[in-house]
Amino acid sequence: MCAHVLVAEDDTMQAELIRRSLLAEGHTATVVHDGPAALDAARRLRPDLVVLDLMLPVIDGFGVCRVLRRSDDDPDIPVLMLTARSAEDDVLLGLELGADDYMTKPYSPRELMARIRTVLRRGGRADGRREDPVVRAAGISVDPVRHEVRCDGTPVECTPAEFQILLAMTAEPERVFSRRQLLECTRGTDRASTERAVDVHIMNLRRKIEADPRRPARLLTVFGVGYKLSGGR
Known about the structure:
The chain is an alpha/beta fold. It has 8 helices and 12 strands. The radius of gyration is 18 Å and the shape is elongated.
């Protein structure tokens, strides 16, 4: 069961926790933090599921869900609402707008992943739309099921930490990741790492995927912020 999940959550820490949990389950994820970005990502990426925070800025989760259900692109995309509001009226409104499930904060990440599996199965997305779990960007393909990486079609050997970093960056090309965010991607594979160890992982990855590691064209430094994978899908 591999799916691409759009996470629309304005709390960056909560969003990162959900993203890491999804990656650990073998899914891919795109994270956005406001309503317009959620609608744009849903239109462009056609995800298999939207995890939708109710209290999004600009356009709230109710508004996003309402637009998604009226969309001609994919009006049946599953939506799991995630919010701190638990009033019965809010729950009923979310379900009436077409949400497939509704969870209130605080929540257990394990329960959230179980709910996601259920919604995907119920919607037929788990074994239907995303038969190919491979994520691709900038000439890089990462297969989270077979644990394989290819660069321009050539197999690339990666350490577990390098693999997790590359998987995260390939799933979200052009997103700038901080060292701390990339370090979190390696949790469970490289527990002794520090943020500075991320620089070493990036340097090693450049040796493996760049034509000239000293002048990288794919794995770029964003000075004062972190790194991004550039080059398109």
